[in-house]
Amino acid sequence: MSTTERPDDRTISSPRSDRVRRIAGLSGRSARRRHGLFRVEGPQSVRSLVEHRPDAVEELFLTAEAASDHGEIVDLAGAAGIAVRPIAPEALRAMVRDQDAAGALVSPQGVVATARTAAVDLALEDALAALPAAGEPATVLVLHELRDPGNVGTLIRAADAAGADLVLLTGASADVLAPKVVRSSAGSLFHLPVAGGADAELLYPALRAAGVAIAATSGYAQDELFAAEIPARIAWVMGNEARGLPAAVLADADLAVRIPLAGAAESLNVATAATVCLFETLRRRGRE
Amino acid sequence: MSTTERPDDRTISSPRSDRVRRIAGLSGRSARRRHGLFRVEGPQSVRSLVEHRPDAVEELFLTAEAASDHGEIVDLAGAAGIAVRPIAPEALRAMVRDQDAAGALVSPQGVVATARTAAVDLALEDALAALPAAGEPATVLVLHELRDPGNVGTLIRAADAAGADLVLLTGASADVLAPKVVRSSAGSLFHLPVAGGADAELLYPALRAAGVAIAATSGYAQDELFAAEIPARIAWVMGNEARGLPAAVLADADLAVRIPLAGAAESLNVATAATVCLFETLRRRGRE
C-alpha cells in the first residue's frame, strides 16, 4: 500500500484554504479576468454546464451528500472525463458568499464548479459564426447597456426558452459571467451562444451583414407588435433599465414596434418587454 | 403678525425626528400593520398614487428641488386637496433606508408619501366585487405563495400593462405593501384592485362563483398555450418560485396549459411564465 498522498482525490476540508478563497474571489469581475475562470453554483446550473458545455469545465466540487442526491451530475462528469473533487460542506459554502435580494446567503446546495470564461463568453465574431445559415430563420436578443445582473440572467433564460439562437450584450451591460447572472440564467447560459462586452458600433453592422434585421420596441412606434410583420431573421434590442435605448439606436433600427399597453401602466420593465417580443416571435414561427 | 407656529407648513429638517423614524420603520410588516400605513417612494410611484388613489394618501413629502422638478405632483395634490409637506433632503433620505439588489441605497429622488393599507390592500370580497360584471371578459392574476417582492411588484406591473382587472395573492405570498413590491410595481399597484393575504381555500371557489375559470401552467399539460382556447373570464394562477403550484391546486384547475419551450431550457421563471400568459390573453382579446 502506497503512502503517497494523492491530493486530487482527498476531500477539501478547510474553508480557509487558498483554493477556496480563490473561488470565492471569483464573485469579482477583476478576479474572473485575472484567472480566466468564473463560478457556477447549485445542481441545476452545474448539471447544465457539465451536460452542455463539458469542454468549459475547469473544476467540479461536490459534497458527499450532493454526490449522493445528484448522481446524474456524477454520471455526466464521468462520461465527459471530468474529475469530481470531494469537498466538506463548510468549505463548499465558503466558496459562495453572495447574498440574494433579501440579504440571505445564497446556498450552492453542495455543488460548485469553475469554468473557463473564454469558452462561454464568446468574441462577437465567434458568436455570429454560430448563427443559423443565411436563409434560415434566426432570433437574436441584444441587451444594450442592461445593468441588472438578475435581468440579464432572466433574459438569457427566457431567450433560451423562446428558442433564440444567440444573446449579445453591449460593453456597458452587466458582466455575463457575474454569479447572479449565472444563477438567474438557471443553466440557459450553457444552452446557446452568448457574447458579452460587444462594441455597439460593430454589433449592429455585423448583425445586418449577417442578414439579421434590427428590431426595437418603443411606446411611440406606429406598428403594434401583435400586428407587425416579424422578419425571419431578427434581433430584438432591449435598452437600459432606466434610460431605455439611446435615440440613435432606435432611429437606426430596421423596425420599431409598440407593445400594446391595455391598463394604466406607463411602460413595461425590460424583462417583460423582451419576454413578450421573444415569445410572440416563437408563436409566429410555430404557426408559419 | 402672528408668532403661532404652524407645524404643518414648516420644513421637516431633522433626519432623527420621530416622524421620520416612524416612516423609515414602515419597511417592516409589523409596523405597517400597527400603523395601518405603508410607504410610497419616488416620483413615478407617488404621482400614480396621488393621481389614481388620492383617497388613500395619508401624507405627502417633497423636497424643494423635487417640488420644482415635479410640478405635476404638486398640481395633482392641490387638485385633490392633499397638503404637500416640505422636507429637507437629508430628512427625506432618512425615511428610506432600503438597499437595492446591488446593495446600494434606494433613492426616493426627493419624493415620499404614506398611504393607508386598507385602501389599497383590499379584502378578498371587495376585490372580487370590483370585477367586470358576469358576461363581460375578465382577466385575473393569482399569485400563489409567491415570495420574492421584486417578482410580485413586476407581475402587478405586467398585469396592469396587459389589461388585467384584478391581482390576488394568497396568504403565504410576499406582503403586497412591502417597499420593494411598491417600487417594482412602478405605480401599477394603484391602477387596479389588489388583494393580498387571501385564504387559498376561499379564493378559488370565490373566483368560480364569479364565473371565472381557474387556469394553471404546467410543463406536463397537453394543451399548448398558443393553441388553447382561453375563456373570456380567466384567472391565471402562478406558483411559488422554487416549488411551483401545489399539486392539489393544479389538479383542481379548470384548464392547464403548457408554455412552449423551444430551446434547452428546463422551465421558465414565474415572471416570464405569467408575462407570456397575460399578454397572450391580451392578444386574443384584441383579435376577437
Automatic annotation (TrEMBL), chains A, B:
Keyword terms, alphabetized: Methyltransferase, Transferase
CDD domains in the record: SpoU-like_rRNA-MTase
Biological process annotations from GO: methylation; RNA processing
Keyword Methyltransferase among UniProt keywords: yes
Single annotated GO MF: RNA binding
Alphabetized InterPro entries for the sequence: Alpha/beta_knot_MTases, Ribosomal_eL30-like_sf, rRNA_MeTrfase_TrmH, SpoU_MeTrfase, SpoU_subst-bd, tRNA_m1G_MTases_N
Gene Ontology cellular component annotations, sorted alphabetically: cytosol
Residue ranges of domain RNA 2-O ribose methyltransferase substrate binding in the record: 39-121
SUPFAM superfamilies attached to this UniProt entry: alpha/beta knot, L30e-like
Family of the protein in this entry: Belongs to the class IV-like SAM-binding methyltransferase superfamily. RNA methyltransferase TrmH family.
Protein name: RNA methyltransferase
Source species: Brachybacterium phenoliresistens
